[in-house]
Structure formats: structure tokens, C-alpha cells
Amino acid sequence: MAEGREAEYHSNDFRWEELREEVESDPSLRYHLSPFSAPPNSAPPPSPDAWRSFHRRHSTGKFFKERRYLLKEFPELAPSDGDSVANVLEVGCGNGSTVLPILRAKQSVVVYACDCSAEVLETAKEMIATANIGPIKHRFHPFLLEFSVNPFPNWLFCANCQKMPLANPTGFFSGANPDNMSGSTSLKGSQCCIGGVDFITLIFTLSAVPFRKMPFVIKECFSVLRPGCLLLFRDYGLYDMTMLRFPVEQRVGFREYLRSDGTLSYFFSLDILRDLFLCAGFVELELDYCCVRSVNRRSGKKMQRVWVHGKFQKPMT
Questions:
Q1: What is d(CA 75, CA 89) in angstroms, rounded to the nearest whole number?
Q2: Who's near 122: CB < 8 A, 6+ residues apart?
Q3: What segments bear the compositional bias annotation Pro residues (predicted)?
Q4: Helix 50-57 vs helix 118-129: angle between axes, to the nearest 10 degrees?
Q5: In the chain, what are the domain boundaries?
């Protein structure tokens, strides 16, 4: 059964262009398409503590399920080249639902994971420690970071090392160990940083960042990624069912909405996402909509979900 559900999850059940035509011809949905100008009594700006409060309410870790589809969508996360170590940075790790399948994939994968909530990082550590995947002390390194405001810590890829020629373009650096969630590190010998990361995963994270801050986040990701390596992306797509359910009063920007709990949700078109990543210096490898139709078992209502799938590479030079 599990395999069947995963296969359905990955399929394209309908064409996005057909959904667009349906949405854009529906007068009741027209407010989603119009240019945005904030009315006098519009919703308040998002609170910086909204996600921290969200994770406190869902502290058991049961709200988000392990993303078992991840390695099918991004097989690069399970390297097959001997015993080489891949450093992965998960941005906005939440309770570890993305980290866990990456750690399961191969014992030589090392994951660095940041989030703005200390509470959810503790939840992630507990969830992964009890997941029966073997020793994780040197493989999972969570750290606290408000990544929409602050740059990534210097120990990921210091400025001096970023300027140096790439000494090992086909191999991977071994991991360093953050001492605590403030971002300090324990590095071996004279090593000043871990030399950058081989993969960055942005999985349902960027949509929660205010649109005006997205270029900063993407540029920071670019700065800590090693040349030739990949950023793997998955997030909400334009005309997803969730977007169409938002009432007009929760619209706080163009394709940007404020949830009732104070968290943000943005819905990406391919052209907007492409512009964001190319302007940061990335090269587009894959970018497409993933359209999945499911049925609510209780109500029998058809649900049309739209996600954006992307792979972006940092150039070698």
C-alpha cells in the first residue's frame, strides 16, 4: 500500500494549463489574479514569532509526516560513489521530516539543518534519535538561525575559502560538528570551515518567507554551496488548492497570503521562481509543476494539489 501511495504522489494527474484555464475563467476566484494593493484594514504583517508558535502547538512531531518521496524526486541525495561523504544543508528543517529520509539513504551523508525555532530543533533531534537509523552524533547537526534575516554562519563556508580554487571538484568534504545551536563549531585541526555543502534542500520553506526577503535567502544559499553542486527545491505552486481557499481579506501581497495563525504562504509560478534563482547566480537544471489529484475520503471532494519541483546548480566558475 505504501508503495502505491508514493507512486500516486509522484504522478502528474492533470495538466497545470488546464487548471489555470479553469481558475482564470471563474469570476469567484478573480481576486487571486488581480494586482495587489493593501486596503486600509488589511491583515497585519506576519509576526516573526508565528512559526515558533506554530511549532510549539505541534511539538509532538506528528503534524508533518516523513517525506518518503524525497529520494525518488531527488536521487542525488543518495550518492553511490563509494564511501564519499555528502554534506547536505536543510534550510527550515522543522521537525526533521525532510532530514530523516536523507539520513536513511546512506551512512556517509552528513546533514546540517537550521530553523528559527529552538523548540522544533529539539523535536527534530528527538525524532531522529529514536528513528532507528544508527549512530547520528556525527551525521546530524542542527543549528538555530533566523535565515530570512541573518546570513549563514561562517563555519559553513568562510569568505576566504569561497575565493580559493576548488581543490576537489568531484569529491565531498567531511563534516564539522556544531557545538550548539548558536552556530559555533568544533573543527578538526586548522580547518576554518567545512568547505561548503554539496546539496541544499529547500522543501516547503521559501513560501513561508516574505517575498521581499526571498532574494536574500537564495543568495545566502548560493554562497555556502560548493561550485558545481545542487540546490533541490519543492514548494507550493500557483493555483494550488490551498491558495484558492484563502479569502480575499487574507491576501497580503501578489500570490502571498497570511494564514490565521500568522504564518505566510506564497504560491510560485515557474517564471517568478526562475527569475529568483537565476538572479542569484544559479543555473536551472529542472523546473516544472507537479500536479496531483486526490479525493477526500470523508467528503468525496476532489482536491487538486500543485507543487513546484526544481533543481538548480551553482556554476563551477
A1: 16
A2: none
A3: 37-48
A4: 40
A5: 2-7+48-164+171-313
The number of beta carbons lying within 10 Å of the beta carbon of residue 241 is: 17
What does the mean pLDDT of the chain come to? 83
Backbone torsion region of residue 5, taken as left when φ is above 0, otherwise alpha when ψ lies between -120 and 50, otherwise beta: alpha
120: Cα within 13 Å, side-chain hemisphere: 27
CA–CA gap between residue 47 and residue 279 (Å, rounded)? 28
Residues 113 and 143: beta-carbon distance below 8 Å = yes
In terms of residues, how long is the chain? 317
Fold of 2-7+48-164+171-313: Rossmann fold (3.40.50)
The alpha carbon of 148 is separated from its chain's Cα centroid by a whole number of angstroms, namely 13
Return the number of other C-beta atoms located less than 10 Å from residue 149's C-beta: 12
Whole-model pTM? 0.85
CA 54 to chain centre: 17
| Residue 274 identity (one-letter amino acid) | R
pLDDT, residue 181, reads 36
CA–CA separation, 174 vs 108, rounded Å?
9
Whole-angstrom distance, CA of residue 126 vs CA of residue 103: 14
Instruction: Say if residues 143 and 182 touch (Cβ distance below 8 Å).
Output: yes
Q: How far apart are CA 89 and CA 111, in angstroms?
A: 6
Q: Are 69 and 48 in contact (CB under 8 A)?
A: no
